[in-house]
Protein 1
Amino acid sequence: MATITIDHLVSWLEAFRGKVADQASYLTELDSAIGDADHGTNMARGMTAVMGKLSDKPEAVDAYGKTVGMTLVSSVGGTSGPLYGTFFLRLGAAAGAVAELEAGEFAAALRAGFEGLLARGKAEPGDKTMVDAMGPALDALDAALADGADLAHAAASARDAAAAGRDATEPLVARKGRASYLGERSAGHIDPGAASTAMLFEALAEVLEG
Ligand code: ADP
Ligand code: MG
Ligand code: MG
């Protein structure tokens, strides 16, 4: 596969919606250990709202990012909403008014989204957040593309790196978000946002594998 179309971008989020809905109780269980037990319901509600809005198919990636981002900001009802929302808003703004993206353009748009999320949440790597899954995923995607991999293989590398990043949050002490209120007691649990981000990259790999 050479380019990413709006259809791919919509299918990506339909696959993500399916995962957060199917695994909502797992995400909420993770959040009950170190948060307020709502991450699964937050994400399932947000992604259902997103797919409702996307039934009116956007014509360009900027419009897609705006619709997805604004819907997440307004419907998730947790810290994760504005963070995922900013990610998609910035992804769309970086891509612009185009109907498809080359692999490198898509990677750059994802990177811009991640930078927006970092600026909004001010988390750093190792703070036990979704950043710990997304950072390694994007690094792996960029590295694979630089090595000449196609998008499907690069997305598979990103998925594996996101899963490893999610698992690596388990021993960490949280320094951002609700989990940070627990201090040392936050160690020993996987971060719920890192777990949902790993699902975002599983969904991407599935859709790009075709
Ligand atoms: P809330 O904590 O408001 O109930 P959620 O439960 O939906 O929101 O989301 C919690 C997740 O949000 C955490 O597991 C973590 O991954 C992520 N998170 C929280 N604060 C930040 C932050 N400042 N930067 C990045 N991610 C964060
Ligand atoms: Mg929560
Ligand atoms: Mg909450």
Protein 2
Amino acid sequence: MNYFPTYNIFDMALKQFDRCANLLELDQPTRDFLRVPMREYHFSLPVFMDNGDPIILRSFMVQYNDGRGPTKGGVRFHPSETIDTIRALAMWMTWKCAINNLPLGGSSSGVVCDPQMFTSAEQERICRGFVRRIAHLSGPEWDVLGPDMMTGPQHMLWMLDEYETIHNRKSPGFITGKPIHQAGSKGRKEAPGYGAMVILREVLKDLGIDITKTRASFQGFGMVGLHAAQLYAQMGGTIASVACWNHVDRTAYTFVKKDGIDFDQLTTITNHFGEIDKDKAISLGYECLPGDDWLAQDVDILVPAALENQIRKDNVDRIHQQVKVIIEAANGPTDPDVDPKLNERGITVIPDILANSGGVICSYFEQVQGNMNYFWTKEEVLSKIDTQITSAFFDVSNFAHSYNVSMRDASYMLAIDRVARACHERSWI
Ligand code: NAD
């Protein structure tokens, strides 16, 4: 994997913001206020290794905007983490919460490290050390943390435990993505992928397309891609191809079955990092193509669910003529410069801030359940996510039709307008 991308995703986020701020004709002070984070913190984080040696890690926390409520965002552990990635994620989270009318703002934090290089005890010390830095800058009523890339329920529990120790009280609302038996929510791992497919269901209805006659290609078969593919297959769609990373060959592959992939069979040859076993796939009759070929398949639907910057000027023309819908299940998979081309081709693009917002909706539900100290079944959680995200889809779709703009522009305009209004109502600007 390329740990050191050469592009800057905050530039991408700002390009999208500027475009929609212009369409909304936002006044200059509002534009200046929303274009930068309200608060950001940079920390050095000394952590003792098992052998007694200290190492110094860098970490960041960005609380982008809290006009609509306490900020909410993930904590990432990643070797190529940068303050700009964290700024972009915090900005996108602000818009995601606003689109869904959640009473939350957006934030994001990260520690520059590769957790796979550390023992479990060392990872625990990183989590606890990080919380010691931010314990007085966050909390259930100010900034709520959650998991993101390379962090999971165990990290969340260590962080919660440290926070509760520092504040000398139980505070399950400090963090989401906790283990289910420790005040976590059922349905969290399905939420972003399922949410994306709920939106696909509504888009296809709008376009008058029968989902059972569609074929889709997925990039990514991890937490988001796998659950997206699962619900798509359950709704009757045909999974034609799936691309994923192969850490042994250090490259990506696209696995294709023209007559359709059996979802359950594919999961039996996939590890928990979302990597499909190449040799087993070939022996089961899958075609194994280069990683980029997922977007050149003769399918109706593309679901990028892996990485940012995957649909770009250099490969957009490879998208097959048959493609009608792109559902951005990953964050930032499309370079904003190729949007005009996709629009010209009449492809409906559902932007990330709407498409993958099932994850933050579920996090919000985790907080709600924690506050009640009463927990819903998985079916209840997923059905409430369906209701919430479908309603967000209709808001965006109605806005797009009324103002004759793309779904991406409509999503941003609606979200930015809601956040701007909240800041105006508070007389901040
Ligand atoms: P994951 O690590 O569980 O899975 C990533 C998948 O992408 C794996 O199947 C991996 O093999 C594949 N992949 C990696 N590099 C690839 C490449 N070069 N080509 C093809 N496939 C490649 O990650 P995830 O949690 O599923 O997240 C995927 C995307 O969704 C990210 O953009 C993430 O920010 C976004 N997202 C995640 C959540 C969440 O709650 N996990 C919520 C919203 C958005």
